[in-house]
Amino acid sequence: MILRLSSNAHRVALVLVSFLVAVLLSFFSIRNALAVRYAALQTAASLERAMHLEPADARNWYLLGRYWQYNLEDPDTARAIRSYHTALSLNPASWETWLDLAAAHESESNPIEARDAFLHAKKVYPLSAEVSWQYGNFLLRQGELDPAFTEMRLAVEGDPKRAAEAFSRSLRAGSSVEAALDRILPPISEAYLDVIRDQSADGHTANAIKVWDRLVTLHPRFSLYDSFPLVSTLMAQRRIAEAGRVWDQAVVFAGLADLQGPPHSVLWDGGFESSIRNGGFSWLISEGFHAVQVGIDSQEKHSGNSSLRLTFDGKSNVNFAGVCHYVPVQPSTAYRFSAWVKTSGLTTDQGIRFQLHSLGTLDTSTVVTPEVHGTVPWTPIVLPWSSGKDVHELQVCVVRLPSEGAESKIQGTAWVDDVALVPEPTEHPKP
């Protein structure tokens, strides 16, 4: 009987202990949940409440420090620093806390303590792009350019999207473009392209060209779209020869130099083989013509893998000029324009044709090829064309001019392929 009572008492004790443990766990879980909830409110009262609920949680002290440091209405940097020190006593491995502590000390004009905090952050997380970035900018503000640029280069290595800002800040600090390239940019294509986009957007085209030329020496690989900002900027500034050079180099780096086409044609992707559109010296295809569907056809083509297809819905006497291509050309040069066209049931007396519009500061002119309509097999279109003495660019468009009668609504399909513009051989006088 005594043994049975002892056994029952033991079981009761185990149940009580389990119950007490469950109660304690529940209590701590509820307290922790409340602390998290209060901390998320991001007010002084809520953060203080979270800290009192969980005083051993370093993050509560860290968040409280950030509140007092970055509160715009009632900042208290001294309280922030005390909170950061408490957080670090609980978790000295928090690089974020070290960085905010450094910023707080710097704002209090205490560069010695700020530097010490930055160095602790570096020690805790030496590979952090954020740590290197903030420390580098601190050194830059202190006028210590060499170590600042070393840290900023480390930041760019870890996060190439910081390259544009790092490059810009180094220029503002007095570096030349060449020095900034040497000291700030690691040999990472993404970093160079980030700088080129930024310098092009800000109108610093000469800087962008220098960065591009340095990138070329790396023999990079990237999308042709990455060249659009610089090429478009150069085109807008009428620096067509430079734009053409950059484009030709970018085509190689994008792995698109072997697109099928006539040798020496200066019109890129005349066979519509790539998916590159609407920028640089690629095809510009407008989606704004409701009466015409424009697409790429991989079933019907003259050569290669695809052609351009135009489908007219028969509801409009449409004036269409929605497929164009800008082409860099040499002034005072004879060229041979050519293309292949096929049509199926293309109605009205105005089918499709090509329009060549020369672009120059003084000399502009427009010529058109004969139109093609009805149903015809693949047919060559050939037109001799010569650039004027100041013409550096030609616009080639696939067009359909409106018919005379307002009710001449065009219907049917046309295909275009193998568009080319080839310089004519220079004739040398016989000896």
What does this molecule look like?
By secondary structure, the protein is an alpha+beta fold. The protein has two domains: 38-253, Tetratricopeptide repeat domain (Serine Threonine Protein Phosphatase 5, Tetratricopeptide repeat, Alpha Horseshoe); 283-423, Sandwich (Jelly Rolls). The chain is 45% helix and 20% strand. It is built from 14 helices and ten strands. The strands form two sheets. The chain has a five-stranded antiparallel sheet with strand order 1-4-9-6-7. β6 (353-360) and β7 form a beta hairpin. α1 (2-41) runs antiparallel to α2 and α11 runs antiparallel to α12 (205-216). The protein is elongated, with a radius of gyration of 35 Å. The termini are far apart. Residues 21-39 have low confidence and may be disordered.
Please provide a brief summary of the model.
With 431 residues, this protein is of the alpha+beta class. It has helices spanning 2-41, 44-53, 58-70, 77-90, 95-107, 111-124, 129-141, 145-158, 163-172, 177-183, 189-201, 205-216, 228-236, 240-253; strands spanning 283-285, 292-297, 307-313, 320-328, 334-346, 353-360, 366-368, 374-386, 391-400, 411-423.
